[in-house]
What we know:
The protein is mostly helical. α1 (8-21) crosses α3 and α2 (26-33) packs across α3. It starts with 7 loop residues before the first helix and ends with a strand. It has three helices and two strands. Strands 1-2 form a two-stranded antiparallel sheet. It has one domain.
Amino acid sequence: MASYKQSDYEALRRRCVELHQAGWKQMAIAQAFGLTQSWVSQTLNRIAEAVDPRRVGVGLLERQVEE
């Protein structure tokens, strides 16, 4: 796993979202950054929940929590 400074992670998170929106798979993003697929998944989930707290998960199976 790559070693980044704490300040680098915000840029990695933004780039992670950009690549995901461009159609990259989580594993490909993880390999490009030298991080784990789990980190990518957790990052995407946290950002999705921050944007819309009703969201559960990210990706093709994204769904809205029924209100």
